[in-house]
């Protein structure tokens, strides 16, 4: 694998933070006076890496977004007992857009199964965040503004729910042991893991409220290419 440039490392860092995140801080403006408000929310992503949020109209942040869709999201690396201020985090700026997309809602609830029940409530809406830019803090003095087109995948990226769901269901149902092997290369946490998301760059795994991500070695643009990448990763793990 060729060495990555500094800009490529930044892009990979931001994408990794966004894809691995489960809880993030959501910044909105209060509907009545425009003052700042921050809340804790669950975040998934669409296949291109754009954040997905499931929010209630009755919640303060839902009322705020209805008045002003401009938001920010703070996405931070899990400290796992380390000093959090030495780890990477990115502040995303953008606008929240209500979307009516059963495919993306299913992608969200596969990551957060507890959301399936309240996703059916009339006051809950699925939002996609149209990110404008990100402010990455990757370490002391390693601070950069990065425009969204650099880290959000473009329209040519794989965005096929049939491919994603077909591969996930096949792996989780017929190759559960292989799924555990794949996760073991990025996590020491035990438990029953399953694939909860796939995109052209890698796989997302879930076990309870634990989440991990494993990258492919090159983009996989079809079910067959994903299969080849998984076999290659398993061979490396076993050797």
Keywords:
Pnp Oxidase, Chain A, 2 domains, Split barrel-like, alpha+beta, eight-stranded antiparallel beta sheet
Protein described:
The protein is α+β, with helices and mostly antiparallel strands and 239 residues long. It has 2 domains: 6-151, Pnp Oxidase, Chain A (Roll), CATH 2.30.110.10; 161-238, PNP-oxidase-like (Split barrel-like, Alpha-Beta Barrel). The chain is built from 8 helices and 11 strands. The strands form 2 sheets. Strands 1, 2, 3, 4, 5, 6, 7 and 8 form an 8-stranded antiparallel β-sheet that branches. Strands 9-10-11 form a 3-stranded antiparallel β-sheet, sandwiched between helices.
Question: TL;DR of this structure?
Answer:
The model has no long low-confidence stretch (mean pLDDT 95). Strands 1, 2, 3, 4, 5, 6, 7 and 8 form an eight-stranded antiparallel sheet that branches. A three-stranded antiparallel sheet has the order 9-10-11, sandwiched between helices. By secondary structure, it is α+β, with helices and mostly antiparallel strands.
């Amino acid at each position: 694998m060729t060495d990555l440039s500094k800009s490529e490392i930044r892009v990979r860092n931001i994408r990794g933070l966004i894809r691995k995140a489960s809880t993030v801080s959501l910044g909105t403006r209060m509907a009545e006076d425009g003052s700042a408000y921050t809340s804790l929310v669950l975040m998934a992503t669409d296949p291109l890496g754009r954040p997905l949020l499931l929010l209630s109209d009755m919640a303060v942040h839902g009322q705020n977004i209805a008045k002003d869709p401009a938001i920010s999201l703070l996405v931070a690396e899990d400290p796992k007992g380390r000093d959090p201020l030495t780890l990477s985090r990115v502040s995303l700026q953008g606008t929240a857009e209500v979307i009516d997309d059963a495919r993306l809602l299913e992608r969200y609830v596969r990551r957060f199964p507890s959301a399936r029940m309240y996703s059916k409530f009339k006051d809950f809406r699925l939002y996609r965040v149209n990110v404008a830019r990100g402010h990455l803090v990757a370490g002391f003095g390693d601070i950069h503004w990065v425009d969204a087109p650099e880290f959000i995948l473009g329209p040519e990226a794989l965005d096929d729910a049939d491919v994603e769901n077909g591969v996930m269901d096949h792996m989780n149902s017929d190759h559960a042991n292989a799924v555990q092997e794949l996760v073991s290369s990025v996590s020491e946490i035990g438990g029953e893991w399953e694939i909860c998301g796939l995109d052209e760059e890698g796989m997302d795994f879930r076990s309870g409220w634990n989440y991990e991500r494993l990258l492919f070695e090159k983009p996989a643009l079809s079910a067959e290419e994903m299969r080849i990448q998984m076999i290659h990763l398993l061979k490396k793990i076993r050797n």
